[in-house]
Structure formats: structure tokens, C-alpha cells
Amino acid sequence: MEDDKNLKFSIFTLLLGFMALVSALSMYALNHIKQSNLEQVRDSLVTILSTVQEAHHMWIDHRRNDIREYASRPEIVSLAMQLTSIYARGDSTVGSDALAELRLSIKDYLKKNGDKGFFLIAPDFISIGSMRDENINTINLIHQQKDHLLDQSFQGDSVLIPTIISDVSLVDVDGRSHDNPPTMFITTPIRSLDGNIIAVLAIRMDPSKHFTRITQLGRTGSSGETYAFDERAILITHSRFERDLSSVDLIDRSERSILNIKITDPGGNLLTGYRPTASDSPPPLTVMAQSATSGNSDVNTQGYRDYRGVRVFGAWTWDKRYGYGITTEIDTEEALAPYYETRNTLLTMVVLVCFLGFILRNFIHRMQQATSNRLEEAYNGLEVRVMQRTLELEVAQQLLKKSNVELNDLAITDGLTGLYNRRYFDKSLSAEWQRCLRDHKTLAILMFDIDHFKAYNDCYGHQLGDDCLSKIGNQLARMPLACRPGDCIARYGGEEFVSFLSNSDDHHAQKIAEEVRQKINAMKILHRATGVPSVDYVTVSIGVASEVVDREGSAEKLLNKADRALYMAKRKGRNQVCVFDISTESGGDVIAINPNVNESS
Fold it and tell me: In the chain, what are the domains?
């Protein structure tokens, strides 16, 4: 009996020791899993941050090189010299021929890049050129807010001016007009023929477009956000949480977050009802903002409150090259979700094992083997879960890296014509084909080719050939060719252009194609080397194909039909529209619309 009691005591002691060991191992495993989770979050944040910063630099370098090349053009230099000469004589440049010519010249440049306006700034920081007469002979806006950056341009550098307050009302990307909205500039010096800097050209850009979009493309998870800020810790890109900010009265419903949010720690989560008490002292900057505005780069996986008061992990850097900071953040709850799930599962299993162990201690002899098997199954299950979670995290990490690589592929337009490029067209055509397939709609494709363009290049040279392509691209962009949702116009390569029209039959597509042909003829671009009879200007041949989208067809087949119709238009003498006849597709028949032989030349 005494031996039985001693045995039970020994078993009880061993059981307690075992439970203590299980608890210790569980805590060790949980800590290891948490640290592994945090390391993966850290790596993701750093990868996103570096990718966004690199995308910023690529975009900024492109804009700097573009404006530097534009400002060095002889006609721009000549106009700038004329305006500075007028200003030096004490006369106003308003109403001068030089200002009118500069506005006309720069208008296409602004349209190509989607920019808002320009300044021509004299060395004493007075605006002597602008789209608006009210700006002339006033102290320049950039000098008033970022004088040290404008000084750099007068010292010979092309400079990005991060987001500042505008001096005029502007329309944002949503079509809403704002008084004194945020704006940004890219500046470059203009040099005289002897190499001296005579003025600075500043191009006004909308920060809501490329700058904010590039920034917001980089994020992780559903709660992640990437944003930029200036040396005062003021947002210089839009927040993706503007609706939340409006609901907690951080901004008015009519306001945007850009330049209206200071990155401070409110002391609690505003989204869950916390409201800071009234205080004479302003709230402190967030941990991230304090570090970044001091010129530091860092990663925080201990957690801190963002400007909404939400606990987040983040990585940040201060871009000393361009004078602003970038951060990417994710809510701690989402970032640690895999750890919490594993922890809860493991703790539940440990509690269950302990409970069963104490309940069955009187039957330990009979249940010893069963208990051992149960514990082994529990550990095996835990290992499988951990391996599954690790695998899922690795897959997510690979997908994230792939998405970050795609951030660098921002160029979807053709630089010469301003139209979409072939890559974007192919992608859009594939998507529109699927939409038309789902809605049982008709899709039409128009394929254009400039007639005898090789002869044009041989006769006039490639520079004028590029000018010809650019003019035709601008003409196509101005036409109601792809103005509806679901339509697209692109440069397909060389002298070829292509467009698809959603929910458009042969009659509509044929009408549009004929309008295009006539409009291009009406441009009267001289082409004495053309082989088209009775004309001495640039003409186009157009192939049209359309069909009701079904599963038997494909975008590639429809594109091929349009190409065959284009071939027939060329074979029939060019300067005409040919429509692919779907009912005789097997024979490849087309219907030609012959051009008016009496069309004015």
C-alpha cells in the first residue's frame, strides 16, 4: 500500500515535472515563432521601402532628365533670353510676343506629362513667365516656401521641389477644385549661349498623380500604408485612410489629407473612440516621424502608434538627396496574426493536455501508453502547423517580392506619341475581351498603318519621321476614338497604331475608322515620296474587325483579322478603310471603303 502511494506520488511528481517542461518548451517555441514572424515582417517592410524609394528615384531622374533636355532646346533658350532682356529693361513681360510663344511652345510639353503649369524665374526670384498673367512680376511661390531648393537650381542643378501649398486653385485627379491645394515642381536652370544661368524653368506637377500613386503602390497586407512627408512631419502624399481621418475629425470632409495631416501621436487609438484631452502643448511626433525628420533610417518591430493612434510596425528612411521622408507601416494585429493563431492553438493544446493529465492521474498505469501517444500526436500536429505556417509565409514573401518588382514597371505609355504602348494595349485588350465575354458584348479592333512611311523616313529623315508620328499620335489622342470606358488607343510599333472599341459593331467601327482617315488626311503632312495616287501628303490605311465575343474566339484572332483587313487596304491601293467580313471569315474576305478620289489635297 505504501509502495502504491509512493508510486502514485512519484507519478504525480513526474507528471508535474512533465507539465512544467511542456510549458517551458511551449514558451520557447512561441518565442521562436514570434521572432521568426517579426523577422519576416521586418524583411517585408524593408523590401517595400527600398522598392518604393527606388521607384521614386527612377521617376524623379526621368523627370529631371526630361526637363533638362527640354530647357536646353534652342527655341526655349532664345525665348528665355528675350524675356530676361525685357525684364532687365524694366518692362513687364505680360503681353510680349516672347511670352506668348513660350506659352504656346510649353503647352504640348505640359500636356504630354499631365502637368499643370510653369514658371520662368529670374535670378532675383521674380516670375517673368507663367501661364497666368497674375503671376508675372511677383515673388515666386517656390522662393517663398523652399528658397534653398530654388537656390540649387540657380547653382546649376535640376531639382525636385516636394509638395508645397499652391498659389492658385487647381483641379485634383478626382475632378474637384481646391483653393490653395498642394502642388510640386521640377526645376532646371536655363543657360545662355555662353553657358551662364539666366533663369530657372519650373514645371508645376500634381502630387496626387505619379508621386502619390508610386508611393501607395508599395504596401503589405490589407492594413499596410506607404506615405511620404516633409521635414515638418507633414504628409506630402495622400493617405489611404482619408475616410477614417474624416470620421475622427482629423480633417474636414471636404479636405484631402495631403498637407493637412501632421504625423503626431494622439496618445490612443482614435478609430476605437479615444479622444485626447485638451492640452496647451501640441502632441509629440510619432516614433517614426521623430527619427525620420532627424535624418535617420530605421525599422521598428516593437510597435508604435501612427497618426491615427493605431499600433503599427514600420520601416522608414529620410531621403537626403531630395529632402523628404518615406515610411511603410502595417497594423501590428495583422502583422502578428500568424503568430497569434499559432499561439492560441498551442496554448489550447497545452491546457488540454494538462487537464487530461490531472483527470487521468489515478488511471496512469492503464492510460500511460495512450497519454504518451496523445502527446506525440499533439507535438506532431504542432510541427505540421508550424511548417504549414512557415510555408505560407514563404509563399506570401515570394508573392510580395514579385509585386515589388512590378512597381518598377511604371512606363505604360509610348514616349514619342503620348499614347499607350503595346504592352499596356495587349494587357488591356485581354481584360476587355474577358469583360465582353462575360457581358456578351461586341468588340472591334482598328489597326492603322501610315502609308509608305519608310519612304517618308528615307525622304525627310528619321527626325521628321518621329515628328510625323508624334503629330499623328496627338491627333489620335484628341479624337473621340477611345474616350469611352472600355476603349483604348495605342502605338503598336513603328508606324502602326491600334485601337479597340468595346460594344462597337462593324458600322460604328467603320465610321470611326473613316473619320480617323479623313482627319489624318486633313493634317496635310507633306509626303512627296508617297506612292498613293493623287496625293502628296501623309495618309493611312486602316483595317477593321469586330465580333460578338464568345468562347470560340480570342483577342489574338480578332487582332489577326484586323491585321488581315489592313493588309487588304494596302493591297487595294492604301489610303482607305477595309472591314473584315466575319460571315466569310474562312475566306478572309474584307469590305473596302475606297477614299474619295476628289478629297482635297
Answer: 2-31+339-407 (no CATH), 72-205 (3.30.450.20), 219-335 (3.30.450), 422-593 (3.30.70.270)
